[in-house]
Amino acid sequence: MREWIRSHRFMMARRLTQLGILGLFVAANTYGFRLLSGNLSSSLVLNTLPLADPFALLQMLTAGALLGLDVLLGGALILLFYMVVGGRAFCSWVCPLNMVTDAANWTRRVLLLDKTIEKKLWLSRSVRYWVLALTLIVSFITGVSAFEMVSPIGILSRGIIFGMGMSMAPILCIYLFDLFAVKNGWCGHICPLGGFYSMVGQLSLIRVKHDHTKCTLCMKCKEICPEKQVLGIISKQSGAIVSGECTNCGRCVEVCESDALSFGVRNYINTNVGEKR
Amino acid sequence: METTDKIAITPRRKFLTLMAQGSGLMALGGMVWTGYLEEAKSAPLILRPPAAVAEVDFMRLCIKCGQCVEACPYDTLHLAKPGDTKPLGTPFFIPREVPCYMCTDIPCVPVCPSGALDAKSVSKITEGVKEFDITKARMGLAVVDVESCIAFWGIQCDACYRACPIMDSAIKLEYRRNERTGKHAYLTPIVNSLTCTGCGLCERACVTEKAAIHVLPLDIAKGSIGSHYIKGWEQGDEKRLEKASGDVTTHTKRSEKSATDYLNANEEMFK
Hints:
The structure holds two protein chains of two kinds. Helices cover 52% and strands 8% of the residues of chain A. By secondary structure, chain A is mostly helical. Chain A has two domains: 2-199, no CATH class; 205-273, Alpha-Beta Plaits (2-Layer Sandwich), CATH 3.30.70. In chain A, a hairpin with a 3-residue loop joins strand 1 (36-38) and strand 2. In chain A, helix 6 runs parallel beside helix 10 (168-181). Chain B is an alpha+beta fold. Among the domains of chain B are: 55-136, Alpha-Beta Plaits, CATH 3.30.70; 141-221, 2-Layer Sandwich (Alpha-Beta Plaits), CATH 3.30.70.20. Chain B is built from eight helices and eight strands, in the order ααααβββββαββαβαα. Chain B has a two-stranded antiparallel sheet with strand order 1-2. In chain B, strand 3 and strand 4 (129-132) form a beta hairpin. Chain B starts with a helix and ends in a 28-residue tail after the last helix. Chains A and B meet through strand 2, helix 3, helix 4, helix 8 and helix 9 of A and helix 2, helix 3, helix 4 and strand 1 of B.
């Protein structure tokens, strides 16, 4: 039991923040407890501080909207936070869809699908940047925020906060796609919001750090990692995982039995550790 | 097939093919996506919260945060979910279920963070103080189906008239003699498009199985005269022409040759 808690400590913390944020939104909408009201697109903290989704704002701006100062300030705050501190942490610590795709991954592991199903469909990890570019082009052409109009993240979070309706259908699609079509298909390949935060969070401070002298080459980290291309330095050199595609989910840290991985602050001052890039 | 064997697969060829594939797939995805969005965004039968800007701009500006939905004390507003067949995530209301009760402090409007609900359009200035005036809202226009309205049968019913928050202005009762009975009157509801806010209280109150009075979006409910017709008997109506822009002349194949203006051609003579 203790071992289980140790190897799931960040996952439990992540579920706590994901559900906690949604819980606050629900509390504001249904009970009038307005600590955090609105949803992930745009919200108000304590009725005063605005927060907003910078990617949604970017789409609205390309669609030709003139935006108010409040919402721009809210977007800038969120952008700054992930840029400087969190990196791509939105994806694993806030996004409610992460629970769905993690569930698909879990099912994959339990059913041993990676070993039993022959891989038929291949997607490049960089598809998300193409989709990101396409989002902006289509927003410009149609005059509406293209991704926000179809985003399963928005559908799920609005569903939980304001009522589900038929929202489970698109969410089930994502689950089935990740389960049977492509491993980590949505979050790791297609989602333009993930691509956006990958680009935004490239220089952020909080990073997973590796000590290669402790590494036993068990490769559990690479097995569990939803973006395993970021773990290139494992067992080869010490330092931080600097790729913006790392979601800071901490799965690698918690499954590592030899303490070779840990969360830390990126070292920008000492140039010898190879973290500056 | 011999010729293709001779073509070397150079890095240059690979690169160009890769780019072609990328842009080809982008074009494919882009066209499907654009097609869907163009369909989805133009769902015309949708009633927006008070003070909503014109639908095209509303689709641009609404960030789908649901602050207006939260602020509404009557749970009038909903965010469109999958299955509602409305643009996803945008707020709307269905008056037959829950109409807009026209709160005087309009709580749904000032909370909008992105300007999709424009507080200025429902504000007035009285004695130098800016205050909200919900009667300036134009969410839609109530339209009466005279076939299914029982007042037009001669049965007395003034449910919509009494439900209207701007009674005797947005809905008036017109009195007319009932020739069939010879001794009764028709009291029929007439909607005034200048003052109707489209709140839908009339639609909610209507006693027929399916409401005989219902709110339609302004774009659909209203026609447009254009600048060909002017009320000559109304002073200043021709000023509308000054605002008219663009070409208002009819063009046909015949009109390319200028017609003989035989009535006015000799105007000089009559001076």
